[in-house]
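Possible regression after last week's pipeline update?

I re-ran a chain I had predicted before the update to compare outputs. Posting the input and the new output here so someone can diff against the archived version. Not blocking, just want to make sure nothing changed silently.
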Amino acid sequence: MRHINPYDVGTFFQPQADVTFIKNAIVQWLIIIILIMNIVIVAGLWFFVEPESAFLKLQYNVYFGTSLFAPWWGGYILPAMSFVFFLIDIFLAYMLYVIKERIFAYSILLGAFFVQIALAIASLSIVLNNY
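New output (post-update):
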């Protein structure tokens, strides 16, 4: 009996009925990339935003200048929200994967990836406004 390796490049896009949610290569890569992006966002905010500063500039308007201030920890709300949404998306993707709706599960995880990209851009703008 030959063992089928789910990580083999030749079998990456071929559907396999016996692969679980966690052992699926597409799911694993999306989860790893999203977690790494979230860690990089938190590390970037931790490195560039000083806790001693009185207020953090969250939004900059071309016409009026800075239009939204928050305490120093206000910048960490975005990565925290993205992590909570990521956990919700994993749960929903798992539930859809169990009922054999794999394309929808992949779509939800891909949507979480794009949300993570948008939040990375927003966090980068917070860093650039305050650095």
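Follow-up from reviewer: compared with the archived run. The chain has a mean pLDDT of 82. Marking as no regression found.
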